[in-house]
Amino acid sequence: MAKASKSRMTVEGEDEGRFVAALAAGDRAAFAEAYRRYNPPMVRLAAAILRNQASAEEVAQDAWVSILKNIGGFEGRSSLAAWIFTILTNAARSRARRDGRQVSFDDGGEGNGLAAAFDGTGHWKEMPALWEEVTPERMIAGRNLLQHVSAAIDRLPEAQRAVLILRGQQGLEAAEVCAALGISEGNMRVLLHRARHALRRELDRLMG
Amino acid sequence: MGVRFTCKDVAARADALIDGELGLWDRLRIHLHLAICKGCDHFIHQMRQTKAMIRASAALPDEEPAPAALDAILARVAAEPEPEPKPDG
């Protein structure tokens, strides 16, 4: 893992090791780049955990203070993104505890709507359509597809949203997502599955 | 379950397939099914497109950070020089 992560190119084409060194050296431009890249998903993730936008922004700021103070100890055993999001989720959990709230990533256990799509013999009741021209720029009902997708992600239940941000958007490894959120791999897969199918249904509605 | 997958079997493995986490045998059985089932072929295609759009949505235009926001964090870092124990990187 350490060897693989040394050569990862995750920050806008810049070698992660050099980027981390610049952050550790107090390079303001590197900090601005890291903040531009990671702060929006950090706030979205904290909001999914805390269910409060103002608290989420404060927690992200607290996390940045921890990140900058501890970046010198980052040894590349995980990706930089996984390390950053783990600090963020720890900060969000501390905040939730201070506010007297439990953080739970259990998801209620409702199905994903797929079971009803099949007949008794396991065949599609209605054949899925072939989507044409699924591009981020495509305009539907006054918004592009990417904006529709973002809005649909914002409407997901919090636990699904948290997994989708880390695994689906940020591309963390499955094990990194489980560690950051403190959930089992089985739970993570169920949440990712439900979140993706909710998004697929939304795209299907838009394409129809 | 027999050797041949139903559409429901294929759909249940769609996530693992598009994430490259499926074993060779299941992958083979899915591809045998896709060769004769247009519905599942479309479904797997939809799942790949959905995954790609989710990934693309991470790159929505991020605003340039306000210098004041950066300054506020840097001031706190400077004011609290003691390192805190944090997860290993």
Structural commentary:
The complex is a heterodimer of chains A (208) and B (89). Chain A has 208 residues and is mainly α. Chain A has nine helices and two strands; from the N terminus they run αααααββαααα. In chain A, strands 1-2 form a two-stranded antiparallel ribbon. The longest helix of chain A has 23 residues, at 28-50. Mean pLDDT of chain A is 89; it is low at 1-13. Chain B is mainly α and 89 residues long. Chain B has a domain at 1-58. Chain B is 61% helix and 0% strand. Classes of the chains: A mainly alpha (208), B mainly alpha (89). Chains A and B meet through helix 3, helix 4, helix 5, helix 6 and helix 7 of A and helix 1, helix 4 and helix 5 of B.
Quick structural overview:
In chain A, 61% of the residues lie in helices and 2% in strands. Chain A has 208 residues and is an all-alpha fold.
Which short descriptors sum up this protein?
A: 208 residues, mainly alpha, Rna Polymerase Sigma Factor, Chain: A, 2 domains, 61% helix, 2% strand, globular, disordered N terminus, B: 89 residues
